[in-house]
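thread: overnight batch results

M.L. [08:02]
morning all. the overnight job finished for the chain we discussed friday. pasting input first so we're all looking at the same thing
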Amino acid sequence: MRNFAKAMVQCLLLVASLVLAAVIPAGAQETVFRTYKDNSGFSCEFPSDWDFQQAENTDRVFSGLGGTARDATIIVQVIDRAKTSEKTAKAQLGVLKAQLLDIRDGRILKEGEAPIAGQQAPFVIASYKTTDTAGKLRTFNHIQMVVTAPRVFLLMSYSAPEGIFDEHMKVFENCSATLAIGEPKAAEPEAAEEEPQTPAPPAKSAEEEESAGKPAPATDDEDTIVWRRIRSRI
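M.L. [08:03]
and the structure it wrote out:
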C-alpha cells in the first residue's frame, strides 16, 4: 500500500505531463475523449466509454460503462465559496478527511499537494470498506482533492476497489491534467411577476426519459460534450 501511495503522489506531481504526447507509437489504441463543460466554469476530459450524470444533490458523476470500470467513479462537487463556512481549500479538505475516516475501516494513507490547474491543490489518499455495484463488500482506495476556482471550490475525487484502482487511475489523471477553470455562466434573469407563466413543457417520450440526466449534444449556449478523437494507450 505504501508503494501505491508513493506512486500516486508521483502521478499527481507530474500531472502536467499527463496530457498525451503528440508522437504516439504506431498501433496504439484509438480513444475518443469527451470534454465536459460545466455551468460553474470548469471543464475536463474523460473517455467516451465513461458515462456522465448529475446526481440529485448536483454532484457531477463520471463512471465507467462496462467491465471493471463500472466500479470506478470520479465525482466533482461544486461548493459556492460565498455560502460555505470553510473558506480555504485546506479547510474543505479537513471536512472531507473526517468523512473518509468515518467510513468503515477508513484510514488516511497519504496527504500532500499537487499542481492542478495552475495551483497547488491539497489532497488525501484514503482507503475504506464499502460495497461495490454487485453489493459485495470490498476495500476501496480513494483520492480526494480540493481545487479553488473563482467563485467555487471543486471537490474532486476518484474511487475504485483496491484490485482495479491502478487500472483506471489514468482516467482521473487525464481528467486532472485537462482541468480548466473559468468564470461561471451568468444566471438567467428571473421573469417579472406580471408576466404570464411559461407553459409546461410537453411530456417526454420514452427515449427522452431514458436519456434524462445525461448531457446531450449542445449548442454554444449550453453545457457541451465535445468529441475529440486521438490515438493513445489510455
